[in-house]
Write a structure and sequence with these properties.
CATH architecture of the largest domain: Distorted Sandwich
Strand order of the largest sheet: 1-2-3-4-5-8-10-9
CATH topology of the largest domain: Cation-dependent Mannose-6-phosphate Receptor, Chain A
Strand content: 35-45%
Shape: globular
Largest sheet: 8 strands, mixed
Number of domains: 2
Length: 187
């Protein structure tokens, strides 16, 4: 992601709402602690740093996934980055069961270009993106095909996690290359 946001790594920001204290540690995790005197007050992880959400060449949010289990799934949190005078966790909600939404204010995203994806990519990936733009412009690929290429670029850049299926394919390719010839297999 944007290198200037790495200044936030290793820091944590908290927000108290009614009986809960939320703590957001960028590139690490989000936790929730019940502030009551009950013997079994809840304290847990709402998500661990996972990937960026990208829309229209812009980093629109950070996904913290694989938090504590909640009914049949894991808790997860989307962190929205908005311009603010200081670094602070400004708002927390739970739009759907076990899915949380945090608003994090920071002066690091106030510049209109501060959350652009393209400048964070390597030259090779920028070229791939340029080629995809040209193919779309020349109507040689559809909007859906273009989005698929962008997703692959973002995965290759490490901004998005590859789906489990792709990881399995990668591993099996490595294995299949190991035993490519009879000699290699015999070894």
């Amino acid at each position: 992601g944007p290198a200037h946001l790495f200044r936030l790594a290793g820091k944590c920001f908290s927000f108290v709402e009614s009986t809960y204290k939320y703590e957001f540690c960028p590139f690490h995790n989000v936790t929730q602690h019940e502030q009551t005197f009950r013997w079994n007050a809840y304290s847990g992880i709402l998500g661990i740093w996972h990937e960026w959400e990208i829309d229209n060449n812009t980093f629109v949010g950070m996904w913290m996934r694989e938090g504590d289990s909640c009914e049949t799934k894991s808790r997860q949190t989307k962190v929205h980055l908005v311009c603010g005078k200081s670094n602070k966790l400004a708002y927390v909600s739970e739009p759907s069961t076990c899915v949380y939404s945090l608003t994090f204010e920071t002066p690091l995203v106030c510049h209109p270009h501060s959350l652009l994806v393209y400048p964070t990519l390597t030259e090779a990936l920028q070229r791939k993106w340029d080629e995809a733009e040209q193919l779309l412009y020349d109507e040689l690929i559809t909007e859906q095909g273009y989005k698929k290429i962008l997703k692959e670029i973002f995965e290759e850049a490490g901004l998005l996690k590859a789906t489990e299926k792709k990881e399995v394919e990668k591993q099996s390719k490595k294995i299949s290359l190991e035993f490519e010839t009879v000699e290699k297999c015999s070894k």
